[in-house]
Write a structure and sequence with these properties.
heterodimer, A: 568 residues, alpha+beta, Cytochrome-c3 Hydrogenase, chain B, three-stranded antiparallel β-sheet, 16 helices, 38% helix, B: 390 residues, alpha/beta, Rossmann fold, Cytochrome-c3 Hydrogenase, Chain A, domain 2, 3 domains, five-stranded parallel β-sheet, two-stranded antiparallel sheet, globular, disordered N terminus
Amino acid sequence: MTHIVVDPVTRIEGHLRIEAEIDGGAVRDAWSSSTMFRGIEIILKGRDPRDAWVFAQRICGVCTTVHAIASVRAVENALGVQAPPNARLLRNLIMSAQMVQDHVIHFYHLHALDWVDVVSALSADPAATASLMSSISDWPLSSAGYFAGVRDKLKAFVERGQLGPFGNAYWGHPGYRLPPEANLMAVAHYLEALEWQREFIKLHAVLGGKNPHLQSFLVGGMATPVDPDQQASINVGTIAQLKKLIAGARDFVSRVYLPDLLAIASFYKDWASLGAGVGNYLVYGEYPMDDGPKPALFFPSGVIHGKNLAAIAEFDPAKVTEYVSHSWYDYGAGDRAGLHPSAGETAPNYTGPEPPYERLDTSAKYSWLKSPRYAEEPMEVGPLARMLVAYGRGHPRVKALVDGVLGKLGVGPEALFSTLGRVAARGIETQVLVEKMGDWVDALAENMGKGELRIHEGQKWDPSTWPADCVGAGFHEAPRGALGHWVHIHDGAIANYQCIVPSTWNAGPRDAAGKRGPYESALLGTPVADPEQPLELLRTVHSFDPCMACAVHVVDAGGHEVVKVRAA
Amino acid sequence: MATRTDWLGDALREHSLTRRDFLDFCGGIAAFFALPASAAGAMAAAVEHGKKPSLVWLEFQDCAGNTESFLRASRPTVADVVLDTISVDYHETIMAAAGHRAEEALATATRDHAGEYLVVVEGSIPTGARGAYCTIGGRSALQIAREVCGGAAATIAIGTCAAYGGLPGASPNPTGALGVQDAVPGLANLVNLPACPANVENLTALLVYFLTYHRWPPLDRDHRPLFAYGKTIHDNCERRAHFDAGQYVEAWGDEAHRTGYCLFKMGCKGPATYQNCPVIRWNEATNWPIGCGHPCIGCAEPEFWDRMTPFYKHLKGIPGFGIASDIDKVGILATAGVATAFGAHGAMKIAQHILARGEPAAPAKPAAPARPSAPIGPVVPAGAGKGTPS
């Protein structure tokens, strides 16, 4: 039995530590620990609830829109404000652009190096690489000369002897299976994607002033004026700009990202039977299609238990509980209690080893993350959960794409419950969204044309119009999964604030019953050829797209406020 | 491995650029800094010779927003060339290596280039709970920062968290979070690039400046380069004429808002915020917050989370509404009250130091005459500055 520690887990957002027992060439047990905490919910107490989104947004600079959205929704829910239709369209565009850009960056810049051997690309034949590229896509950057240029650039970089961010990696590991030409193609697209993401995210600058940390959200709507006859507003020129950016994204996703995903996956089909994890999936649903209090959602909500797609249950917020049995917090009722997030009784109490330390005591408390549970079960959230619920509920485009990908890889639907399934679901979701975004631009243009220029509902803007005491919840599907914010407003100020974040669901430690979190569960049985180079372990952890700054949540240090939750 | 001496030439050719293009770019940078034209030649020479300097990028209590900003570096092809003058030997978010191999990369870079490497710090440094609020590879952020920043040629604190404690350091500062200058006092060659996040154009410009002259550009009393923080948002705002003419947005989406009038009454902190957003804008100059209709929140200023909030309440004591003839007085009068603001700031910092680390901090800096006042936010809950709850 070999005990390994991977800390830091790199190519993620934030600070994650994985400890694992390796025996007989595979992971026998695993522990996921978050090693950073800021206490943003504590800082929010006493503040103006209209400011909350600016604070909450800084929970994460990678998924830089998601906490702003969840926050304005929670406060709107508490105050009883309904944002006007244009605000819904602007938010849908901002949220979907975040999802698309985030997924592409994850695939190429955070995850690809687990599958692509950069050093192997040096020995690729450019002509053969061009043939490979032409066989999978009609993307124009596909000539032998182009790939020779990329290879030579890489060669020059390596020959300078300073590998920078590519140094000290697991190059040459037997787990890398792509031929040199596929590696070179992927390296070329790593570089192209770096350029592409910078271009595409201008959509956020257009609608939010800047990225990261867009600055156009408001409780009650958006701050971006809409008027076809004004240069300081979103006008017809802006509409054309948005359409061009979305067309560019559709082009890149359908002609580079998805073909690459399929080509790479075809060499790693064994990963379609590894890394399933807990087999339970939770989705709040996203992209409201109308403006009622219970809007239809483009990606439906639902709960899957035990991989059963035939019986998808409705999401019930009352079934969410959180445990701290293995987390550095105390509960008044003791460490075995599970509490609904509305009864946010939380007090941080670090009982781990004093830094510097070598090992955590994983039999005791070992993470800054709590363990959220739904109906007492750990749940996976994220693109795979969303695509499974949409597939099971018969979303036509999702169903067509999922069946198409499974067919191309020659695997059955059971392959979805895996490390590779997570990677594929993320790509499929990206494709579905880039196809959809144009509709929201058209709807915005149509509204402008008929004189519907409202962007904000101002009746409840002034705090004097607020009830003395109110509570609300805001739900959102972030790129990494189901996100919820809960707020309690008293006398015009935040009395309590709480978030349950996608990576908390996925990366949380064991609960009171000893049930592992989704990361820990998914790692069981993962083959590890060389414990000194745990490449395979990184593949499964990265397939979840960890976002640890988001995941750490704590409520108030005193810790006894009770918030009543109302579903959004 | 072979050492290439003409890698820049190769790189330029790969980007279909001539040396003339590169010199033009350097000239542009020189003009940006208002340097003499002869500086451009020196800059190009400095970039062409020698091995790439090592840079390590540390992330502590951060959101990776500055890392994401870094990925948005514009002037695409030429920026690639310029950034290739740096060897990024450690950066958790982008590096291929993981675990102890990653930590080895950090150890190697700091050992082999001792006293010569650059360090960028993103995120604040917690001093509470004996360092347990942020550990990497089992070591606390403070231990890492002392060691890595202490051995560097220079330290760049990027973003408001690394510069001043930022969001984690906002009242009541639950984790005893500090900026680099307070957590590791006495560092030589410290430059702060605050803003939430920092605009990557300012980082690129700063690096080129340093590589060229091997010194930092002139800094203000908060260690910020004057080229990026020498004027207020208000000084250069495209809506300034509307401020002077008394034309203000009164409600979100009203005709004044759609027309692009001044956002002052909606809470804009531009008059109290030193930053060059209106000049360089964001995302390859696509837009900026005021350009899209939302007020400035003052994110480049120390303690803006406490001093600039509530965000939608307008500043007090900024004269000049609708009186164009009083423009000149605005900047002068806006500096009144700075001593009050900074007195409170200094006291809070000292309290944090004492409670969190059991030792007194350096005395609060004296008020500088060149800074405007900012409102003291009314939302500083009881217990502000008490450090960690543990």
